[in-house]
Amino acid sequence: EVKAPILEQVNRAKDEAETAAILAALNSTRWNRKQAAMKLDIDYKALLYKMKKLAIEDRAPTE
After folding, report:
1. What single-letter DSSP state applies at residue 58?
2. Residue 39: which CATH number?
3. What pTM does this model have?
4. Domain count of the chain?
């Protein structure tokens, strides 16, 4: 088994942590992206960019 270079491992861990934080914020705001961005203390457009980069699909609850 070949170990990934340390930088690759760090980047993967960062992406996983960002994904978890974004999903938690989105779920707690019922997928209101503007409120989620405020909770995360990042710009709304930064949240949209990160969602696209991390392949987080817009799956707002439907009623």
Report:
1. -
2. 1.10.10
3. 0.83
4. 1
- Please report whether residue 45 resides in a domain: yes
Maximum distance among all Cα pairs of the chain, rounded to whole angstroms: 47
Taking the C-alpha atoms of residue 10 and residue 53, their distance in angstroms, rounded to an integer, is 16
Residue position matching structure tokens 């992206």: 33
- With beta carbons less than 8 A apart as the criterion, state whether 23 and 55 touch: no
pLDDT single digits (tens) 4-38: 799 999 999 999 999 999 999 999 999 999 999 99
Token code pair at residue 3: 């170990």
d(CA 19, CA 6): 20
